[in-house]
Design goal:
Four copies of one chain form a homotetramer. The first copy, chain A, has about 260 residues and is α/β, with parallel strands linked by helices. Chain A has helices spanning about 70-75, 85-95, 110-120, 135-145, 180-190, 200-210; strands spanning about 10-15, 20-25, 30-35, 35-40, 50-55, 60-65, 100-105, 125-130, 150-155, 170-175, 190-200, 215-230, 240, 240-245, 250-255. In chain A, the strands form three sheets. In chain A, strands 9-8-7-10-11-15-12-13 form an eight-stranded mixed β-sheet. In chain A, a hairpin with a 5-residue loop joins strand 5 and strand 6. Chains in contact: A-B, A-C, A-D, B-C, B-D, C-D. Chains A and B meet through strand 5, strand 6, helix 1, helix 2 and helix 3 of A and strand 5, strand 6, helix 1, helix 2 and helix 3 of B.
Chain lengths: ~260, ~260, ~260, ~260
């Protein structure tokens, strides 16, 4: 979609006077209800973006093309999503650039899937695994609404049975017990490929690190990102009173050829 | 480059036994000297990646294709670079996806330029402005070595004279006094376009926020990211003793149409 | 109070099954109402501490002697209190030990006052200034209930008129515009004495630092403390989802003799 | 010591032009050598504090009475000390106020011992356990130089054999495997008493929490404090480039009477 004008079936972002954000799929005839009043979709369709619109109660909302960040924060969710602060770093660490082939499990609501798909487009491909029907349905819808479904292959399959692809450039696990799938991971990932995982607890990180020691992984890193937001008031600049205290620990590593000489670390 | 084998003129990443990382441009006949011994480039050229190589002193190094993260951390620098933890979030906030047209100033050593170029490839374009000759030379070399020079237009030009492009999707300022260029920014950025800036001090953030209040910006955010690294030892998991305490504050906003009704915030 | 048994007029801490904490002043005949049921004060008076008590609905609460930390977190408040994480460091930085004479303004709800009084007891004295009647009343009550009123001199006085005491060991300002009182501060504080201030915004910190440059202060520090709490679950150890993002910036310095040779920093 | 004048055998704090801090025990005839020149102790003895002194090379140093914070940061160390940021909170959480009886193990270099002694003076007592001869010698010297040796009872004893005291108000463990001493801890600590421990790794925290579940502990908390220092420059306020990334995790709890009804958490 070009910046110029909003079309039916476009997704637009509405920003309220209080800076709340709503993602809207434009459909002629529909209405968007907020506690500040109603906005008719038809008042947006065909209009230029980057402007304000007024509710029937006289409150002005900003109408924007959603950024990738907006999409990630506002995907329909049936599970905990991976946060953009983490996704940004994951993209760089996994080397998720144009043309790459990347495996991800589980799909969940598809937030990371969506970001990976954007990053490898138009020639790359994301292979995303999920066993739960409901998750897959939600993820598929999120990917379609974002228009990146052609860059994603969704597999409804238990990864204990192995991944279908071979020699992929990167592989990311957002599952409860990633250590159970190290064999399958090493079979699918090319030598030198990028491995990543997200884990909420320190115990999981320890178990995962111990499991990785029995497989050909090197350059292992564990890290976390803390995002601190500030009140954007020039004369009273200060951090917000509250912040997210934890999303998860990130593990990154490189899979090496099993036949390599051991590295003496 | 495919993962399979390193070729002459490829960049490879060497990881030392102590987890130090070196970026190497492969040239037949050259030697790489470390305090762990010498590695001949010819011992790497034509060899598969994801394997170890041994120095003449018997130490093993890992040979990898550099990820985007590795490239960013290891670009040749003549100035402070923007860190990957910040770049990851900037990409998402600027909506730097396939096909976008994005302005950046100043180019500096070209780390953010490189990441933006990767993100908008192959059809998008990054327009990067820099006045200092030496910076431009370094940045051009970094972009060429990464193979993304076709996705970047470098301008040696003082942005006080305005940007050449119009209606760009996003614009990022990494300059000392971004508040001096708000007029030029609003001329170049499309309505609804994404604005970003990186500033090291709180005083700069306050001045910048005050300046933005006189221009059509909305959905303004100020934030910072703290990256904490852990020792990847399963039985003794703990954060590193030292961490980077500060890189900079990030400001993000959306430029709206000047004719918009005021938003009552 | 000895640990042994709770007496009438003692303050006890009740800890709920969900780890919520309530401070209670024991008075015969009274009842404590919670959403888990009622506890009669008479069921606590005369009983040993460190035990559980059962509500009429059968829920067990823990009955404890409140620690200084518990008292600080649970003082009656008519204003934002200074948090224990900050108070702990303030005590060390101000050298608040047995026998010291320390000025503080404003008193507020008296949380810092209470901690300072405990620290300088029995021979030291805290001189606390406050103009607002309601604050003083609340603070006095909090100090009396904690039994440290003999170590505090409360002044209802505008500090613009100067402090009454001279040559105090330390002086702490928790007021909106501390820079207005640097003259008065330097008159009251002994040469070499410890100065401290708490300020919520970066702008205030900058103004305060600029003001201090015109007065004989040295060894100036600005810092902040971030407290991160973890879920105390052995098999799933991880930080809480949410945390306090900001309480305030702390400034510390030493006042030197005005006649000192300038330090070339 | 009063603020007025430095005497022989007093400890003074010297602050260099570059804000480096040195703790000095004044002895007539001695000289203090720095890379900025020499200061004669006799030039300080008998002089008022809070002033500057000039080295033979013409550099000015500030002469101050050390605060408790200065003492803690500058104790002679033969082991890792507990940092003041953590000590401040430990004092509040352990309820270390005037008159309390507190056990600590191990003594180490005596930094926490020193702070606890200051807090419980003049009537309280700190009982500090250490097996290593060299540690005890260093700690004793640090306590004597700080003048608080009368408030500390040092035990050279393996705590596996149990603590000598009974019914203490608080007990803090800074040992490698605190979980091995829970039986001894519960014997020494009064019902309702405050327990604390400092542990560097997440694995230790998990093991300790698991051990505490088999003993009468309630109101268990795990937390960590991050200290961020800022450059105190009014026009360029910003955090320091580097910070301490980790000191340790703090555990706090209350020991309850073993006969208490179980709390259903």
């Amino acid at each position: 979609m070009r910046l110029s004008r909003a079309q039916e079936n476009d997704r637009v972002l509405l920003v309220s006077p209080g800076n709340r954000r709503y993602l809207l799929l434009l459909r002629s005839g529909r209405r968007f209800h907020t506690n500040k009043g109603i906005i008719e979709h038809d008042a947006l369709i065909g209009q230029p973006l980057g402007r304000s619109v007024t509710t029937h109660l006289g409150h002005t909302f900003l109408v924007l093309r959603p950024s990738l960040h907006d999409l990630l924060m506002n995907v329909k969710r049936v599970s905990q999503i991976i946060y953009p602060k983490d996704i940004g770093l994951i993209l760089l660490k996994l080397d998720a650039v144009h043309g790459r082939r990347i495996i991800e499990a589980g799909t969940g609501s598809g937030a990371l899937t969506l970001a990976l798909a954007h990053a490898v487009r138009p020639e790359g491909m994301v292979y995303s695994y999920e066993v739960r029907e409901e998750m897959l349905r939600t993820a598929r819808r999120n990917l379609e609404e974002a228009g990146v479904e052609d860059s994603v292959t969704l597999h409804q399959r238990d990864i204990a049975e192995g991944f279908v692809e071979r020699d992929v450039d990167a592989l990311f696990l957002d599952v409860r017990e990633p250590w159970d799938y190290m064999e399958q991971t090493c079979q699918a990932l090319a030598d030198g490929g990028c491995f990543g995982a997200l884990l909420p607890t320190t115990n999981q990180v320890s178990i995962q690190l111990a499991a990785m020691a029995h497989h050909p992984f090197m350059a292992i890193e564990v890290l976390e990102l803390m995002l601190r937001q500030y009140k954007p008031v020039p004369q009273r600049l200060r951090p917000d009173d509250h912040m997210i205290g934890h999303t998860g620990y990130l593990i990154f590593a490189r899979k090496i050829a099993p036949s390599s000489d051991p590295i003496q670390e």
